[in-house]
Amino acid sequence: MIKKFILKTAYFILPAVFLFGISFIGLIRTESPDVLRMGMIPNIYKHYRDRFDLSEKENFERLSKTKKRDFDFLTMGDSFSEQKGYGYNHFLAEEYNTLHVDEFISNNQLQTLISLINGGFFDDYKVKYVVLQNVEREFIDNSKRISFKTKISQSQLDSLIVNHHEKLEKDEKDSEFFSRSTLQFPLYYMPKFFICKDYLSNDLIYNYSLNSKKLFSNKSDKLLFYKYDIISLTESNKLLNVVSLNTILNKISHKLQEKNIRLIVLPSPDKYDMYYDYIANKTNLMKPLFFEHFRPLKKEYLYIDSKEILKRHLNDEPDIYFYDDTHWSPIASKILVKEIKKVIQNR
């Protein structure tokens, strides 16, 4: 009886074990690389990241931990400013005293910077430059409904920091043996990756063919990017929105200059925008215009035209952005820090 039971159940269990094994080997569940995780894209380049030094050790100080009050630079932004030991602020801190405002404090970095200015933050913390970084797809959204009256006091900051507990996203269902991804990945998403062209994977990540295999060190001719890079174009391609954003930045710059602080604006191009010219088939794909609209506007702050700067290196330096992620790589971080140094030295 036991033998028959084992044989019968084996017909069901063994295929499940096989599928789970494929998912375990080829499916990314960690936070990074994010496009592989979000798109259920197979991790076929196991050693791709070996060429990078992705250190966790940070040279900069975090507002949530520091006791110091005197800095050359203050940086604030989104996940592009949270790359730890391989981000632009890490390399900036190799030469300059750098303070970083943790992302959990600066949900909307534009509004948060205004609140810090109004709340007397820069009376307690002495800085020479503020680097305001914002990813392209969220810059316009962050500039809407901005108030120049909000403020956050030091005591409110302290309370926010004390009460902050890092929330680790745990998808318990995906960690179970009989999870939906165990079936979906090997039976649907993995075959689709090898068979299909120019499609949306897991309703989150686009997979488009490139006309070059020189853009990434793994020689892949696939561009994997977040779907909101395209969705956000509805707003970021509007000239009036870009003009309004620039007006807000000029106003913030004036407020900082009253405290003898210079504002440096560092937009981070969406991966789609960065590699748009190299997409093989652009039929039905909207051209990104944010940087083209933004570039000629009168700026009363220091501006790092990251798209133009990084674009110069695309053909001679692979992996300006990670193949498997939405973010730029340490290569880009170092290039941009050189530009920041050049901008402040030319003042």
TrEMBL record:
Could you tell me which residue ranges the AlgX/AlgJ SGNH hydrolase-like domain spans? 243-346
Q: Where in the cell is it found?
A: Periplasm
Listed GO molecular functions?
A: transferase activity
Superkingdom is Bacteria
The metabolic or biological pathway listed in the UniProt record of this protein is:
Glycan biosynthesis; alginate biosynthesis
| Keywords from the UniProt entry | Alginate biosynthesis, Membrane, Periplasm, Signal, Transferase, Transmembrane, Transmembrane helix
The record's GO CC annotations read: periplasmic space
- What this protein is called in its record is AlgX/AlgJ SGNH hydrolase-like domain-containing protein
**What is the species of this protein?**
Chryseobacterium taiwanense
